[in-house]
Amino acid sequence: MVGLKEELLKSIWHAFTALDLDRSGKVLSHNLCTVLNVPHDPVALEEHFRDDDEGPVSNQGYMPYLNKFILEKVQGNFDKVEFNRMCWTLCAKKNLSKSPLLISDEDAFKVWVIFNFLSEDKYPLIIVPEEIEYLLKKITEAMGAGWQQEQFDHYKIALNTSREGLSAWELIDLIGSGQFSKGMDRQTVSMAINEVFNELILDVLKQGYMLKKGHKRKNWMERWFVLKPNIISYYVSEDLKDKKGDIVLDGNCCVEALPDKDGKKCLFLIKCLDKTFEISASDKKKKQEWIQAIQSTVNLLRAGSPPPHKEARQKRKELRQKLLAEQEELERQMKELQVANENKQKELETVRKQLEAAAARAAEEEKKRLQTQVELQDRFSLELEREKMVRQKMEEQVAQKSSELEQYLQRVRELEEMYKQLQEALEDEKQARQDEETVRKLQARLLEEETAKRAELEKWHLQQQQTIQMTEAEKQELENQRMMKEQALQVAMEQLKQLELERKEALEQYEEVKKKLETAANNTKSWKDKVAHHEGLIRLIEPGSKNPHLITNWGPAAFTEAELEQRQRSWKGKKATSE
């Protein structure tokens, strides 16, 4: 009921503002009660305005009466078109333009009603450019013409520079001028306005001729069907004068396509709780369009949603409100920024003044600083002369110290050179000792091999002695074995000679190494004397012991004297035994 009340108030506002002030309340109230099917109470009207000097023309006086005694009693059982026509009759003569229009008065009335539907919910009523564009698009689409977006954009820019929107009478002048319907005749424009009026105001979702099968006679009759959000009405013709019945729609209804039968094509079925209706469309396209339209209507009833055009209008309004709120928020933020900017400007001005005062103080301080600087320069000049004399003396001392330092560095370089040479001599001595150790190991290995050969020879000699004492029968065999062993002994003697030669060569190498070692030792001793001469900065590494080595035919220092004597006695004993 709130939405219905808002729609009624818009039409009533036009009528109220158009009537004469002295009798507007009484005349309008009587007409409203008549068309809205509300009981009229003249006594209540007089009582309501008894103490009001301005009478029903006062905003505080008439609107409370209108809400309490008329609008609150409206039940919805009235003809909307008749109600709007009554309000139109009261306001059209005073406000409608006298210039000739390309649309009839009836079309102007329909545009006025559409304006009330699309206008904003604030007074005085206006229609914003977005809704103007929506309406003009709908009319252009109904005419089958192409929409000129660029032309409307220019018009919208010109409109926005002067005001927020158009009044109802300005909208009628815009559509009646033919500015957006050039090339179309009056009849085409009228049919387009009527189609938009039926959809937006009368809630006609679809209409057209179809065949309907009767429930009693079962005959097929052509009827003009009009689909609305909760009902399908069918008439004898499209003038809507002779109504034949209604198909009440709810969420339980359904629509189904039927196969062709009884010579009828493009059939579909509408099922309701109490009745079923068989309908035949003119072609398959119309059949599909009607099925989709009826099914969409039933789905909206199940969801409890308003008709599509009302829902779209609400969404557009919510979007505009949202954009308006965002714009207001942006303006608020801009104002806050402007205030903040002004505060910043004030702060900057204060800072500028402070800087000017600081600059004046700085100039005064600079003047004092320059005076002080002159005094300091005179003082520093005297101190500079004294510092020059002190620096000259220090430079002389530094030159002397530099000479001494150069001498000291030269001495250090000489010592470093001597140290390098000493390191090389030590490396030579170390290499000689390694060579000596290598030769000694070689002699020891040759001596062990010679000892092993001599032991083997002695063993063979003992075996020969035992063989002589054997029997004659075995003597011949032993003789053969002795010959073989003598041959082997001969080979061993030759190997022993070869080892002896190798030992002599090793001994010669040892002598050479020994000479090198003595030479290195002499060099080391010479460098040691030089280092001792230079304040003993480096202590040399002395060579090994100079005790005489024991030289035998087995190699130098291979055996001690006791071992040599024991081996000599053992050799002589074995030799005597073999003889």
Structure, explained:
- This protein is α+β, with helices and mostly antiparallel strands.
- It has 3 domains: 1-201, no CATH class; 206-306, PH-domain like; 307-430.
- The protein is 67% helix and 8% strand.
- It is built from 14 helices and 9 strands.
- The protein has helices at 2-18, 24-35, 42-48, 59-70, 80-95, 105-118, 129-143, 149-160, 168-176, 186-200, 284-303, 308-468, 472-533, 561-578; strands spanning 206-213, 220-228, 231-235, 243-248, 254-258, 267-271, 276-280, 551-552, 555-556.
- It has a 7-stranded antiparallel β-sheet, with helices on one face.
- A hairpin with a 6-residue loop joins β1 (206-213) and β2 (220-228).
- α6 runs parallel beside α10, α12 (308-468) packs across α13 (472-533) and α12 (308-468) packs across α14 (561-578).
Question: Which descriptor suits the 3D outline?
Answer: elongated
Could you state the order of secondary-structure elements as H and E?
Answer: HHHHHHHHHHEEEEEEEHHHEEH
The largest beta-sheet arranges its strands as: 4-3-2-1-7-6-5
The major beta sheet can be summarized as: 7 strands, antiparallel
Number of domains: 3
What's the Cα radius of gyration? Answer: 68 Å
Assembly state of the chains shown: single chain
**Approximately how much beta-strand content do the residues carry?**
5-15%
Helix fraction, binned, reads 55-70%
